[in-house]
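Hi P.,

Sorry for the delay on this. The queue was packed all week, but I finally got your sequence through. Input first:
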Amino acid sequence: MTEAEPLMDMRLAAAQAVAREAGAMARRRFVDRSFAVAFKGPQDFLTEVDGETEAFIAERLSRLFSADGFIGEEGDPRAASAGGAVWVVDPIDGTANFARGVPHFCVSIACVADGKVEVGVIYNPMNDELFSARRGGGAQLNGAPLSVSKARALADCAIEVGWNSRAGFAQYVDLLRRVAATGASPTRTGSGALAIAYVAAGRSDGFVEHHINAWDCLAGILLVSEAGGYVSDFLKGDGLAKGNALIACAPGVKDALIAAAAFEEVVR
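Then the structure:
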C-alpha cells in the first residue's frame, strides 16, 4: 500500500457521506417544489438548487481536503496544489427531470489524481441508491458488489444514447439511427450519470454519447470499469476540461458498439 492510498480511501468515505447529505438536500427541495426554473440554453435547465447543492459539496470537501482542486458544473474551478487531487462534481445530474418533477436525478462526485479516476460516487436520493467505486477496489451499490451485464449481441441490448446540444441535432439523430439499426433498444432517461451507473449495475448494457462533460460521467466511468465493463479513454487530450466522446458498455458488445457509434477516434 502506498502512502497515498489511505488518503484516497478517506476521500471515498467522504464522498459517500457528502453525496448522501447533498442528495437529502436536493430531495427535500424536489418534494416541496421550493425553487424557480431558468435556462442556460435550449433544454439546458437550471435551478437555484443546483448552485446551492454544489456550494454545499464544495465547502464540505474543501474543509476536509483543503489542498484538493474542485471542478463543478455550476461554479468556478478551484486549483489543486501541484500534483494534487481534483474533485469533479455535478450537484444535480438530470436537472431537467428535477425541474419537471420527474424523480430520476442524482449527485455525482468523482476524484481524479495523476490522470486517473480514483473515486466515483453517484447517489440517487429518490431511491436511496448509493453507487460507489474505488480504483482497484471494485464497484458497489449500497455495499453490494456490482457487475456489468453478460450481453453478447447488441440486438439483445438496451443502449442509452446521450443527447446534448453541443454535438448538434443531426449528429445525435444519426447516432440514434445507427444504434437502432443494430437491433438494440435505444433509450434516453435524462441523467447521463445514472445511465452510466446503470451500465455498471447491469440494468442496461451500454451508454454512448458524442460529447459529454467530465462532471456528468467520471464517477460512472470508474463504476463501469470496476464492475468489469469497457470504457473509452475519456480523459485523453483535454477531456477533463473540455469533455469528450464516451462509450461505456458490457465487454461482450464493446466492438459492436464502437462500430455502431462510428466516432472518429475511440481509444480502446
